[in-house]
Amino acid sequence: MAKRLKSELLKNNIAVDVVAGPDSYKNLPELLEKTETDLNAIHVNLSRSETYSEITPLRYGDNKLSAFVSIMRGCNNFCSYCIVPYTRGRERSRDINSIIEEIVLLKNQGFKEITLLGQNVNSYHYNDNGEIYLFHNLVEKVAQIDSKIRVRYTTSHPKDIDDRILKTMAAYPNICDWIHLPVQSGSTTVLQRMKRDYTREWYMNRIEAIKTILPNATITTDILSGFCGETEEEHLETLSLMEWVGYDLAYMFKYSERPGTYAAKNIKDDVDEATKSRRLNEIIALQNKLSRESNKKDIGKTFEVLVEGTSKKDIEEHCGRNEQNKMIVFPKGDSVIGGYVNVKVVSASSATLRGEIV
Ligand code: SF4
């Protein structure tokens, strides 16, 4: 917004003195000084090196057990529907030493679960005085900090996820068996229009690798329905891919144009609203079925659960997630919040698993 509306903000709203973009915080003193003499205190340039590595507060989860650690900023992919590369700038990876320091600090504060965050974590690349660290090197180092601290990460890009990170996950039990791999569409032609840089076949190959190397992993995804020019056949390809993968969970949206993106400028948003809604509903109905099936398969299995809190529906119950990122509700017994407990799943709906301590 700062970049797009900079002059208008200063012109039309006398309450605004400074317009600063997301990478401009270090320029604030000079911008504030400028307001004494000059009303044009604007700094909206995006940095190629800023990673906010020393900035606190960090992002914590609601439960005081999970923390989210940024490992990179920006994105170089320029998917045709997405505004992120324009608003957050080019991809830059954070200093591995500062990431490790932050996680050690979190561990000392009692956090039990760390989620590494980035727009495209698989392309993490940091040169530490000549020593190159890639994503799987970083994740391994994080996993080695404490075997009782769970490690998760998001978001992976299908074109970049490789076997090295899958093998690292298999080697460390505290790296959780959960992969979020946004597919967006099951049709290669739609993926081309989206500028996603992979095909349906490539994506299927990556899913096969996940299922081979990490047979217990849950796989979740994002789906964008009704993208520009999407035909009925292309939509059916998305449904068939969903069935083939058997996603455990999906975040599903219908396409809406974002000003400033490649698609907004160059590709017609020509799928009518009724068709977009109908296709999205078909996708949601299928995913509900897949989630139910996925959860049903867990009945009878025992999982290690990190106890996150009291169930919202019953104060006599605790809830927490298993390694696969599924929430399980169970009678409290002698479990304590922040501890680990083994829970056997006894029943399941499409959204929740219920279990008992074993
Ligand atoms: S959708 Fe993700 S990978 Fe594509 S440009 Fe946006 S942030 Fe980058």
Written account of the structure:
- There is one protein chain.
- With 358 residues, the chain is an alpha/beta fold.
- Among the domains are: 2-43, no CATH class; 47-176, Transcription Regulator spoIIAA; 302-357, OB fold (Dihydrolipoamide Acetyltransferase, E2P), CATH 2.40.50.
- Helices cover 33% and strands 24% of the residues.
- The protein is built from eleven helices and 18 strands.
- The protein has helices at 2-12, 28-34, 84-88, 96-108, 135-143, 163-171, 188-194, 200-213, 232-245, 262-266, 273-296; strands at residues 18-20, 41-43, 59-60, 66-70, 72-73, 92-93, 113-117, 125-128, 131-134, 150-154, 178-180, 218-225, 249-254, 302-310, 317-322, 327-331, 340-348, 353-357.
- The protein has a five-stranded mixed barrel with strand order 14-15-16-18-17. A four-stranded mixed β-sheet has the order 3-4-7-10, covered by helices on one side. It has a three-stranded parallel β-sheet with strand order 11-12-13, with helices on one face.
- The chain is globular and about 70 Å long.
- The termini are far apart.
- The site of iron/sulfur cluster (SF4) has 10 residues, from helix 3.
- Iron/sulfur cluster binds at residues 75, 77-79, 82, 84-85, 119-120, 157.
